[in-house]
Amino acid sequence: MNEPATAIEAAVAASPLHQLKDELDIVIPTIRNLDFLEMWRPFLQPYHLIIVQDGDPSKTIKVPNGFDYELYNRNDIKRILGPKASCISFKDSACRCFGYMVSKKKYIFTIDDDCFVAKDPSGKAINALEQHIKNLLSPSTPFFFNTLYDPFAEGADFVRGYPFSLREGVSTAVSHGLWLNIPDYDAPTQLVKPLERNTRFVDAVLTIPKGTLFPMCGMNLAFDRQLIGPAMYFGLMGEGQPIGRYDDMWAGWCIKVICDHLGLGVKTGLPYIYHSKASNPFVNLRKEYKGIYWQEDIIPFFQQVVLPKDCTTVQKCYIELAKQVKEKLGKIDPYFDKLADAMVTWIQAWDGLNPTSASFSNGKTG
Ligand SMILES: O=c1ccn([C@@H]2O[C@H](COP(=O)(O)OP(=O)(O)O[C@H]3O[C@@H](CO)[C@H](O)[C@H]3O)[C@@H](O)[C@H]2O)c(=O)[nH]1
Ligand SMILES: [Mn+2]
Asked: Is 113 in the pocket of ligand 1 (CB under 6 A)?
C-alpha cells in the first residue's frame, strides 16, 4: 500500500514531534529486509531500533539508510547470554523478547515487518507510535469500567456515577494496538474465512478490567519496560518446540495477572496499523493446534492464579508464576515443565543484563 508521503508528513506535522525519542526503543523481529520502514520513516526515524534477526545468522538484513539501530542475530544472542540463550526461541517471532531484554530504555514499541501505516476514516495517516505513547502516559482504569471508554482521551471524561475516589486511575503498563486489513485470527478461523478483512476502524481505547484476561497480539504493541518488562517473556516457541504462535498470548496472560496483582493497567484499541500479509493458515494450524487444545486448561489456570502479597516486584511475581506453571500445568504436558524452567532462566538472564531493575518495586500489590 503506497501512502502518499504528504499524508504522513501532514500527520507528523500535526503531532508532538517524536516524544520520548530518547526513552523508547523499537523492537522488530525479522527474517527479511526492512524495506517496510520506508513508510514509517517520518514517524519512526528519530527512534533507536533493536532488530532481532531470526533464522540464518549468516543472512544479511538490509536496513534503509538513516535509521539508528542495533541488530542481534542468533550468534549474538548465544554470545551475550551463553547457555541462558536456550530460553530465547529460534525460528519464531517470539525471539523479539531478546530485544526487550537488551534495551536500556523505559519504553518499548514492537512491530512486525509486514505492518504498515494505516489510515483513519478521514484518510489521515495514523502515527501508531504517537497513540501508544499517549496510551502509556495516561492512566488506566481497571477497577471500574468507564462507559465512555478512555476518560483521558480528548473530548471524553468519566461519566456520571463513576466514583471520584477511582478517577486518578493507575499507571499504564501495556498499550495493545489493533490491525486493519489482515486481522490476527487463529488458523481455523483463517481457514474458514480466508478472504475476511478487517475494515472496521473503532475509535476507542479501553482499559481491560482487572480480573479479565485477553489475547495479546505482538504485532503492534507497546509497554513500559520499567513497570512490566521482566514479565514480557514470549516463551519457548518455534524450532524444537511443540507449539508456535502462542508466544504473545502466553506473555499476555502472564503480564495481565501480574498487572492485576501490582495494580497496573493494560489498554487495548487505538492505534491501528495496516497488517499486509496473511501467513499460511495450514502452516499456522500445524504450529497452533496444541495451543488451541491446551488453552482450555491454560486459561482456567491463569484465572485462578493468586500471587502472594510479598510478591512486590515483577521478578518475584514471575518466579512465583513459573512455580505455579510447573505445579499445575506440568501435568498437561512435559512442555510446561520446560517452559516453567525457561521462565526462570529468562528472569536470570534479564537481571544479569539489567542489574538495577532486579529489585525495582512496581505499583502497589493488588
Ligand atoms: O520464523 C520467524 C517468522 C517470522 N518472524 C518475524 O515475526 C513477525 C511476524 O511474522 P509474520 O507476519 O510472517 O506472521 P504472522 O502470522 O502475521 O504473525 C502473527 O503471529 C504472531 C506470532 O505468533 C505475530 O506477532 C503476529 O503478527 C515478522 O516481523 C517476521 O519477520 C520471525 O522473526 N521468525
Ligand atoms: Mn504478519
From this structure: yes
